[in-house]
Design brief:
Elements lengths: L1 H23 L2 H9 L4 H19 L3 H7 L3 H21 L2 H8 L2 H13 L5 H18 L12 H22 L5 H26 L12 H25 L4 H8 L1 H12 L7 H23 L3
Helix pairs in contact: 1-11, 1-12, 1-13, 2-5, 3-5, 3-10, 3-11, 4-10, 5-6, 5-9, 5-10, 6-9, 6-13, 7-8, 7-9, 8-14
Length: 300
Amino acid sequence: MGARTGNAIALAALAALVNATVWGASWIPLKWLSAHAVGALWVTFVAFALCTLAILVASPRAWGALARDRALGGIALAAGLTNVCFNVALATGDVVRSILLFYLMPAWVVLLARSLLAEPITGAALGRVVLALAGAVLVLGDGQWIAPWPKGVADGLAIAGGFAFGLNNVLLRKHRDTPAEARALAMFGGAVVLAPIAIVLVRLIVGPIEATRFAPDARAFLVLAGFAFAVLFANLALQYGAARLPANVLSLIMLSEILVATLSAWALGASMLGPGALAGGALIMAATLLALFAQRSGAE
């Protein structure tokens, strides 16, 4: 019995690691597709449309549950913004820089949980916020202690995506009693709705840009289909792992996304962060790990 349980936990951990690996390496197809006239907004729309369709096929009642619960609209908006911002940041910016700025998320969670859940901000939580923000200053300043400001659109989108992800996590906790399939449909459907809206707005305000192009050739169609399948498979793997692993264990495994992205970006020459900026990334990682250990100990 113990061996069987151990095997189940190991399989769940492997499933969570598959999800983290897929998202950690997602910049590779995103940048390739962007270079072959398939913008990140279109990639987001197609990939999450497939995930949404899969949920509706597996659980047709999910749509009714989503329509009846207006609170899930906030989750859809937050999750949609997360994926739109994150994918465009990865496709157009420095990979490691975008990942690190996205993972400021634990700092935003502390502030959002105070506002939306009335959770107190303890000294330890405030310390993690300061640690994460100090890391952001170093990343944005390329290792220098200068006034933090995004260097480009990709930086801003990565930060906005991390904030939206933090909001998504807080809203999921607030509405944890809603049906799981309805929450999942809201999260995937949000990107399906927001991605085309973003395409239209960007084209009207800015004009045609890299993120809104859609002129794929045969190879691009194949890569797009493969990426969509990978996103679907990764999310199914996450659902399997999340149902069988403690939240703190799952969160630690998911941090391997940063490692996968960093190593693959360095290996393929897609990132040019200096030692100082990497030190800032280490501070952000430290803040994230401290948040996970605090959750594990039950201190907060």
